[in-house]
Design a protein that fits this description.
Keywords: ATP-binding, Lipid biosynthesis, Lipid metabolism, Lyase, Nucleotide-binding, Steroid biosynthesis, Steroid metabolism, Sterol biosynthesis, Sterol metabolism. It catalyses: (R)-5-diphosphomevalonate + ATP = isopentenyl diphosphate + ADP + phosphate + CO2. Helix content is 37%, strand content 23%. By secondary structure, it is α+β, with helices and mostly antiparallel strands. It folds into two domains: 183 residues, Ribosomal Protein S5, domain 2; 157 residues, Alpha-Beta Plaits. Strand 13 and strand 14 form a beta hairpin. The structure holds (3R)-3-hydroxy-3-methyl-5-(phosphonooxy)pentanoic acid.
């Protein structure tokens, strides 16, 4: 008897141009395009195994060993349904193919980092889920096509289908068929950029991205300005910076966009605060570090960015990492760099998964 099983893994990605706001909550269509870097080491990954078997009674999923409910019409169910739909197309074209789309699937996923650490586990999780199902079903689908499905699990997940530098183009079609991830450049194009992750707090975040976005879309006038007048130009400029490996521009845009995302959160009614005092102190440190460099005739040496939580991600060329870590350890003496990969700091190369 044949065993139909496949395993795939996907890494976390960290946005430089932030996705914040949905124009369609069911299809997960964003109010602006976004751009991220996919982290390329083994520390921050989700790995998922999917199995199809005629003896299975229903689709089931385990996350880190705990069974999760697959709610009807929910995001997990939507992703599974969409991948099965593509499998059915394969079976219709090739009648000799086993009818795997009619079997239930069992899916086991694990993160090799603490799910509660405030890092984007849903991005790697849904990307790995869709990739493993696509492998199980031997789908002839490109990463961009699969990103259309991962997007419906968690918006940012669509970007984890690629390594390196990745854009999520918002698209304009009401059915979402052009709201997908594309590769801007592979990791090998600019391998020198590293990400330093500073876990400021591993508390679960106060306002989920789903409810935060909804409230921002409903109440923030700054968001309207951002999506119309700021992000389109920034997307162009940061792509250009990546293509010519211009860290100065890449860093400026990344920091500006993090700042504006948090300004938009503050402009939400009631306001949302994702950063805390330690987050802000890390910003001050990086600003000062860059100021001293520029004053001495140098360039920007590091860029901070923050998602929907207090943890800092610092992008920097490899040559500056040691200096940045020693500065952080000096000003945050409680920091314990490299004690373990999930400790306070982890240096991550960025790039392909
Ligand atoms: O995909 P979600 O729903 O987890 O939202 C992610 C939102 C941010 O991380 C704040 C920004 C981004 O583009 O990843």
């Amino acid at each position: 008897m044949s065993v139909y099983q496949a395993t795939a893994s996907a890494p976390v990605n960290i946005a430089c141009i932030k996705y914040w706001g949905k124009r369609d909550t069911k299809l997960i269509l964003p109010t602006n395009s976004s751009l991220s870097v996919t982290l390329d080491q083994d520390h921050l990954r989700s790995t998922t195994t999917s199995r199809a078997d005629p003896s299975f009674e229903k689709d089931r999923l385990w996350l880190n060993g705990q069974e999760e409910e697959i709610k009807e019409g929910g995001r997990l169910a939507t992703c599974i349904k969409e991948v099965k739909r593509l499998r059915r197309e394969v079976e219709e074209k090739n009648p000799n193919e086993p009818k795997l789309s009619t079997y239930a699937v069992h899916i086991a996923s694990k993160n090799n980092f603490p799910t509660a650490a405030g890092l984007a586990s849903s991005a790697s999780g849904f990307a790995a889920l869709v990739s493993s199902l696509a492998a199980l079903y031997a789908l002839p689908a490109s990463p961009s096509q699969l990103s259309l499905i991962a997007r419906q699990g968690s918006g940012s997940a669509c970007r984890s289908l690629f390594g390196g530098y990745v854009a999520w183009e918002m698209g304009s079609s009401p059915d979402g068929s052009d709201s997908l991830a594309i590769e801007v450049a592979p990791q090998s194009h600019w391998p020198d950029i590293h990400a330093l992750i500073c876990v400021v707090s591993d508390d679960k975040k106060g306002t989920s991205s789903t409810s935060g976005m909804q409230r921002t879309v409903e109440t923030s006038t700054l968001l309207q300005h951002r999506i119309k007048h700021v992000v389109p130009e920034r997307m162009k400029a940061i792509k250009e910076a990546i293509l010519v490996r211009d860290f100065d521009s890449f860093a400026r845009i990344t920091m500006q966009d993090s700042n504006q995302f948090h300004a938009v959160a503050l402009d939400t009614d009631p306001p949302i605060f994702y950063m805390n005092d330690v987050s802000r102190s890390i910003i001050a440190l990086i600003v000062e570090y860059n100021r001293v460099s520029i004053e001495n005739g140098g360039k920007i040496k590091a860029a901070y960015t923050y998602d929907a939580g207090p943890n800092a991600v610092i992008y920097a060329p490899k040559e500056n990492l040691k200096e940045i870590i020693s500065l952080i350890v000096k000003y945050f003496p409680q920091a314990e760099p490299f004690k373990d990969p999930f400790g306070l700091f982890g240096a991550q190369g960025v790039g392909s998964g």
